[in-house]
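[Help] Beginner question about ligand-bound structures

Sorry if this is basic. My supervisor gave me a protein sequence and a SMILES string for fe (ii) ion and asked me to "get the holo structure". I don't really know what that means in practice or what format the answer should be in. Inputs are pasted below exactly as I got them.
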Amino acid sequence: MEGDHSASSFTSAVSLDKLGVSSIPQRYVLPPSQRPSPHVPMISTTLPIIDLSTLWDQSVISRTIDEIGIACKEIGCFQVINHEIDQSVMDEALEVATEFFNLPNDEKMRLFSQDVHKPVRYGTSLNQARDEVYCWRDFIKHYSYPISDWIHMWPSNPSNYREKMGKYVKAVQVLQNQLLEIIFESLGLNRSYLHEEINGGSQTLAVNCYPACPQPGLTLGIHPHSDYGSITVLLQTRSGLEIKDKNNNWVPVPFVEGALVVQLGDQMEVMSNGQYKSVIHRATVNGDDKRFSIVSLHSFAMDRKMGPALELVNDQHPKSYKEFCFREFLDFISGNDITKGRFLDTLKMKKL
Ligand SMILES: O=C(O)CCC(=O)C(=O)O
Ligand SMILES: [Fe+2]
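Answer (accepted):
No worries, everyone starts somewhere. Holo just means with the ligand present. The predicted complex, written as C-alpha cells, is below.
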C-alpha cells in the first residue's frame, strides 16, 4: 500500500535498485518545482577548501580563521583538507557502511524504526515536511557520543562495523572540537567557549546509501533541510550534495578526494545571533552508481537551553533568536505539523 510505512510493507530504495526497476514508484516522484535542476547550474558561489594544516603555522593561522569566518557568514559551509583523519580510517568506515547496506533486507529490518527518538534505527526517509513523498535513500542512524554508552547498540553485522565505524566516530569527534574552537575564535569568542555544552553534547551518525536511480531527475536522495545541531562533518564517496546559496541557487558541493564537508547547523546560527548561517542542503541521486555519505551531526548539550551568545548581542545586533534545546527539536520533527516550517524559523524573534 502506497502510504503505509509499517515495517512489513517497507521497500527500501536499495531493494528497488536490487530488483532492477526501470522506473521509480510514484511515492518517490516529486512535483516538478521540487525536482533537481535538469542542467548544470551557473556556479555563482565557490565553496572554499580550507587546508587545516595551516593552523599549525603561526604566520598564516589568522588568515585561515578569517577564511573560515567568511565561509560561515556567507555560505554556512566549507570543505577541509589535511584534517588529520587518516584516509584508511575514512575508507574502512565506508567499507563497513557498504557491507551493511549489502546485507539481506531481513537482517537490516531488525533495526527498522520510524521513531526519531530511537538511538539506533535503519530506514528510508519521508521528506522533511512529513508528507508522503519518499527520498531515494536508505540510512542507518545511531547515537555516537559518548561512544561507550551507545556502541553496543550499533549494528553487529558486519562483525567489524563497530570497530571500524567507532574509529571514525572518535576521530571526527576530535576534529569537531577543533573546528568549533576555530569557529568561536572567528566570532571573536574565547576558544574554550561552551566547553561544557560541547562535552555534554551529542553526536549522531547518519550513514546514508543512495542507490543508483533509474530516474534521477524526478526525485531526490534527501529533501532540502538544515541540520539542527552545531556543526555537521560529512564524508562522501562522490558528488551529490547541493547547498542553497544567498541568491537561492542550488550549488553542487564538488567531490574532493580526502576532504570532509563542514556544514553549520541551526544551533550555530542561534548561538552566533544570526551572524553565521545554517546551510540549507539536499542530496541529488544519479543513474550510474551508489553514493554513500557518513554524516556526523554534532550538537550542544541535549537538555540545556541554548541562545545567542551574550557577547554577540548589543544595540547594533539585538537578540534575534529564542533559546531552545535539542529535545524541543526532536519533538518538533516527530510531530506531523507541516505548517510550522523549518525548526529554525520557529525560533526567530520578530523585530519590534
Ligand atoms: O548525503 C548527503 O550528502 C546529505 C545528507 C544529509 O544532509 C543528512 O544526513 O543530514
Ligand atoms: Fe543534513
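A couple of things worth pointing out: Confidence is low (pLDDT under 50) at residues 1-8. The pocket of 2-oxoglutaric acid (ligand 1) is lined by residues 206, 208, 222, 227, 234, 236, 240-241, 281, 283, 293, 295 (CB under 6 Å). Feel free to follow up in the thread.
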